[in-house]
Design brief:
With 248 residues, the chain is an alpha+beta fold. The chain has helices at residues 3-11, 16-28, 33-40, 44-56, 79-102, 116-129, 142-147, 150-162, 175-182, 228-244, and strands at 60-65, 68-73, 109-114, 135-140, 166-171, 190-193, 202-206, 211-215, 221-226. The chain is built from ten helices and nine strands.
Length: 248
């Protein structure tokens, strides 16, 4: 028996006996239950139940020739259909899984991330969740934010622009911040710059369902908060600061 193929069948959801019966039926061609039992070393009664299960999956067929019943494995290409069905089932259930995931820990959820790669990934995850026209507000020192991986975060800004979100940014005064301020329309952003004496050591992103707090001084860590009241508070504070800053 090919252990690699056996493991593939198990990963597709077949039981041990179903995998053994199918593999042996493939090599035997048109055959009998007795022959499959001897070849697979699976009890005859168990082979019958395995064959029935494989028939339901479309992987075995039965042919009556005279008084004899013969069994044969279907074309292995049909295994792909099983994978497609599993993928479809997962896609249909993904919304429910996400609802369960968000509900973990009750009405509030806090997650911590460490390291540049983890922080980059959580930025991408958050951006993927925000829909066309929704709020995406940021308080940040863009120079420090960019310095962790400039190429990645420059690409990230471009991806964010393409989503046509309601991007509003409150940025610490820096050369990078003023560069983006001059190109607001290109990057689909509204930007206001804090007074020069304002010093930020963390970046805050406020999205409809989450807040991302990203520490931009070593060590590189991030925290994601899912709590409606905390999100509402941060939005109110953001609005207060936005109105308080007089543009150049």
């Amino acid at each position: 028996m090919d252990n690699k193929l056996y493991k593939v069948l198990l990963n597709l959801g077949l039981s041990d006996n179903e995998a053994l019966v199918y593999l042996n039926a493939l090599s035997l061609g048109k055959t009998t239950i007795l022959a499959i039992s001897k070849s697979s070393e699976v009890k005859r009664t168990t082979v019958y139940s395995a064959v029935e299960a494989l028939k339901q999956l479309g992987l075995m067929k039965v042919e009556q020739i005279g008084w004899k019943t013969f069994f044969s494995a279907e074309n292995p290409e049909k295994l792909e259909r099983i994978m497609d069905n599993k993928k479809k089932e997962l896609q249909e259930s993904l919304v429910d899984f996400k609802a369960l995931y968000s509900a973990e820990g009750g009405s509030s959820l806090i997650k911590y991330y460490e390291g540049v790669e983890a922080v980059k990934n959580i930025h991408l995850d958050l951006l993927s969740e925000v829909k066309f026209g929704e709020d995406y507000w940021v308080i940040s020192d863009s120079a420090k934010w960019m310095s962790e991986d400039q190429r990645f975060f420059e690409n990230f800004v471009e991806k964010r622009a393409q989503k046509k979100l309601n991007n509003r940014l409150l940025l610490q005064d820096s050369e990078i911040a003023r560069k983006y301020k001059q190109n607001e329309a290109i990057y689909n952003m509204q930007i206001k710059i804090f007074p020069k004496d304002m010093q930020l050591s963390a970046s805050i992103t406020i999205a409809p369902n989450k807040i991302l707090i990203h520490q931009t001084t070593p060590p590189v860590i991030a925290m994601v908060i899912e709590n409606k009241n905390i999100i509402r508070l941060h939005k109110e504070l953001f609005e207060f600061m936005w109105k308080a800053i007089i543009t150049d």
